[in-house]
Every structure is written in C-alpha cells, then in structure tokens.
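S.,

As promised, the zinc ion run. Input:
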Amino acid sequence: MTNADKHPALALTFWGVRGSIPTPVAANLGHGGNTACLSIDRGDAILILDAGSGIRTLGRDLLARPALPEIHLLFTHFHWDHIQGLPFFEPLFHPEARIVLYSFHPPEQLRAVLAGQMVAPYFPVDFQQVAGHLEFHQFEHSTRTIAGLAVQSFDLNHPQRSQGYRISDGRHSIVIATDHEHGAPDADARLNAIAQKADLLVYDAQYTPQEYEQRHGWGHSTWRDAVTVAREAGIPRVVLFHHDPAHDDDALEAILAEAQDVFPGTQSAREGMTFCVTPPAH
Ligand SMILES: [Zn+2]
Ligand SMILES: [Zn+2]
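Predicted complex:
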C-alpha cells in the first residue's frame, strides 16, 4: 500500500474560527464561537494548528477513537485566542498520549510559555502534572516532515510575531496565513512566493475594508486582501478565517457575498467544516 492509498485525502477541519475571544452567543453560532484551531487528519497521526478554545472539542473527538493518533501541535503564535484551549485539551492528561509541539520559540521557551497559563491563580492543574508524553521543537523559517506531510514555516506580519504554514502531501497544498496584516512589503512578498499554486488558502479576514481603516497596525487583514493573495498566488479557493467577535452570522454572510462577487472561490470558515483538497477518487 502506498502512502497515497493509506491517506487518500488531504483535508482540513475547522474546530474554532473566531479571533480574539470566544463568542458563543446565539447570533454567532452558525459560524461558531470558538477561537482558532484547525486539524489535518492522517489516520495514525494528526496535525493540529493552534490551541484556541476549539481544541477542546477536537480533544474529545480524539479520545473517542479506538486508538489515540500521534498528535503534532503547531502554533502560529501565543496570543490568547491561539493557546487558551490547551488546558482543556483532554489528551494532555492521557498517559498514552504522545504530543509533539512546534513553534518559533526554542524548546524550553515554548514549554515555559505554555506552562505560564497553567499556574496559580489562573488554573488549578500545573503543567508539570500533565500525563501525556510531550516533546518540544523549535520550527522557524524552514521545512520539516510532520505526520507524513511537508510543512514549511514562514513569518507573517503581526504584533509580537506570527508564523504561517504551507502544508503539502506532495501533490496538494494548503496555506495557513492567520494573524497577518497585509501591507508590509517584505511579508506580503514572502507570503505571495510561498503560497504560489496552493490548492487552498486560509487567510486572516478579521475586518471589513471599512473597519480596517480604523485598525491599521492591529495585525489583521480583510476579505479583500484574502482575495488578492489568492488571485496573485494562483490559488482557486480561499477560506476567510479569524472572524471578528463582533461579526455575527448575518455580518459574515454579507462579507462572504461581497467577497464571492469578486472571487467566486471564497468560503467562510465554520466550526465543524472540513475542506477536502484532494479531488474525489474515481
Ligand atoms: Zn488571533
Ligand atoms: Zn494574534
């Protein structure tokens, strides 16, 4: 059996789509109220991007399986909306879990940053007490094989830094670019070069173009920039991600309609949604 047979689909699932803070209010639930968490499932291994509050549901899903996959958790950066779900990720407390964590920080610093949100008086269980086997890796400006996928990390433009990822199974690719503000020439050129000819782009579209006028320097982009990157990089599908807490379902539908008018391959990220990048088998 070849690797391609074993893993026939490259698919991305959204467990949390919101930026800044969870907003589980009724008007938001069509898209979802949990903060950033995505996954690419490879059967015996799973690649997870960020540990916003959406990772809680993913953890329960993993524990319900007959066997726990090897867990590879990559961080874009460490703002709350990308780490706050980690203390509630149940595999962390499972003695048989093997969790490999990656970020731009050196291993000891990564451990310290994550442990820092699990100390008194903020959380009752100390990070030292997690039961799973944890491994920490620094991963920046480079490519490495993770869960059988080629993963490339690159810098985005965001206060206190954020990093994007291009993930490829050798045939198809997904680019994740969240917590990124367009308009910095170096970062835009890097993203454009790395994203070339990917199959799917997930992009920070927190603000409308009108809102952005009051938000320069806050580290986020708009649907218009998402569409521009997709077009210039020759990517057929773009998913608007990192929704603003103030954007309810009606607002997000209006944003999507506007974006689809300009670029029909636009979608809006929703909790529970899976995008399959590989064409269906015949
Ligand atoms: Zn964020
Ligand atoms: Zn951020």
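The CA atoms of residues 201 and 238 lie 5 Å apart. The chain has one domain: 9-275.

- D.
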